[in-house]
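Example record

One chain of 437 residues, shown exactly as stored in the release files.
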Amino acid sequence: MFANLLRGLFALLIAAPAWAGPPIQHWETGNGARVLFVEARDLPMLDVRVSFDAGSARDGEIHGLASLTADLLDQGIVLEGGEKDAQAVAEAFENIGARFGASVTQDAVTLSLRSLIDPARLDPALATFTAVMAQPRLAEDDFTRERERVLLGLKAGEQQPGEVARRAFYKALYGAHPYAFPPEGEADNVKAMTAGQVRDFHKRHYVAAGMVIVLAGDLGREQAERLAERLASALPRGEALPALPPVPELREGKTLRIPFPSTQATIMAGQPGMARIDPDYFPLYVGNHVLGGSGFSSRLMEEIREKRGLAYSVYSQLMPMAVPGPFLMGMQTRLDQAAQSERLLRENLERFVKDGPTEAELDHAKKNIVGGFPLRLDSNKDIADWLSVMGVYRLPLDFLDRYPEQVKATSVASIRDAWQRRIHPDRLVMVIVGGKE
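Predicted structure tokens for this chain:
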């Protein structure tokens, strides 16, 4: 009976004419920052995301600059009454139960704050958050300490085959494009970096013209407008940055074999995939769910793990960015099985591009994606994360409303068409790390 009820609920969800996401309000502050706001009264909480066009693709020739700048933000702040060091900043958040975070991708840096809405907690949380964002100390001793920590992390990465493969894959895939370099940078660049370069980067990129403010929580429009103005007015207006250069298509495939003292081979294969705003987004995305993006129900897992036992895990990913991010397949296997695994990755991709999914595979993927979608928006934090993506990539405000419909609208024919036009198995970058030279 319970199983029948679940099947009925899935059928209703798939058949439903529309799914309504949270109502999103949108405006600009006086100095040009864009704001996305969702009023959520269920809990007395507020989630804030502030993003800047300050990701690692803006590093220029100083790879790792954006990441190190973000790392330094909460290591000391300058206030009217004096300075606070890293411990004092951490205690300022902890003493009122607020949480601060910072993350860097190729396309953006995003600062996050979660706080209770009670003014006795929210006001000091916002004051510290604003100072971290707009008035970081960026002192020489803080810079030296953080740079050494980054260098230790980079050194440790050299001992991890997965990290070695990732770095080699991105360089082979993107060549001279800014996406070729990981956000954390490279040791030589980080060693040569100066605190002055960090200060210059912050001054140039942490400006309202490249700023997206996301608010999700227990407050009304008027209060949200005041809060957004408070955040944006702490920074100069600045200037918007030019668009990133396009990603060139691969003209031919290439294989890199990198020696590494390991008992397993780490394999990564792929090519440029899709951008966040892409006419083929949904047929590529739903198709990838069938190929290798759905865990144990994916075709790659069935063919490589279940039937042949060649790997514990095998996957495919599409990583949309401002300009096409990578389409990536990956796995680890025994060294003596590497050649067979490499061949199977290619063969399964070739077969999928040629034929697309079966109707049964597509139906299962749609139910999986649509059925799980509401769970990806079941908290203020989840909503804030989605709004941040929408703001950074300028997705339409009805993106969440239309998401299930767009998934359900895909067909075997539309998936096959998109994959045949966009994914080329004969032009794969293949990186294999492990074994002797």
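Notes: The domain at 2-232 is CATH 3.30.830.10 (Cytochrome Bc1 Complex; Chain A, domain 1).
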